[in-house]
Amino acid sequence: MTVVEWDQTDDRSTGAARHRTAGAARAGLERHRGPAAAAALSVLWPGLGHASLGRTAPAVGFIAAQVLLVLLTVAPGAWRATVPAWAVLVTVAAVTAWRTARRHPART
Question: pLDDT tens digits for 3-38?
């Protein structure tokens, strides 16, 4: 749903009131989320940087990988394989969030 603000002035050529969207009224307040923020969020929680950019498919994929790694970590002796897997997961999540934010910056 789009919120519309009406100006008090009329357009003299058509006699219609001018309007603009509320988002355009606050255009000066918008900020882009940077790649460093997305990468930092992905280091804290893989997939969170993608979710903050509005990219839900990669975020769900990284979260599913986390759930799988948590389940595998419980098995005895599995830490030998899961520790490097966690490092790879966090690195890949941070790098892809950085690259995604550079190509498609999200607006706050």
Answer: 555 555 555 555 554 545 555 445 555 556 788 888
Residue 92 burial (C-beta neighbours within 10 Å; 0-12, 13-18, 19+): middle
DSSP, residue by residue, 7-36: EEEE-TTT-PEEEEEHHHHTGGG--BPPHH
Whether 35 and 101 have beta carbons less than 8 Å apart is answered as: yes
Q: What is the C-alpha separation between 83 and 79, in angstroms, rounded? A: 6
Question: Domain limits of the chain?
Answer: 1-30, 35-103
C-alpha–C-alpha distance, residues 72 and 108, integer Å: 36
Residues 6+ apart with CB under 8 A from 94: 39, 40, 42, 43, 46, 49
Instruction: Judge contact between 53 and 97, C-beta under 8 A.
Output: yes
First CA to last CA across the chain, in angstroms? Answer: 18
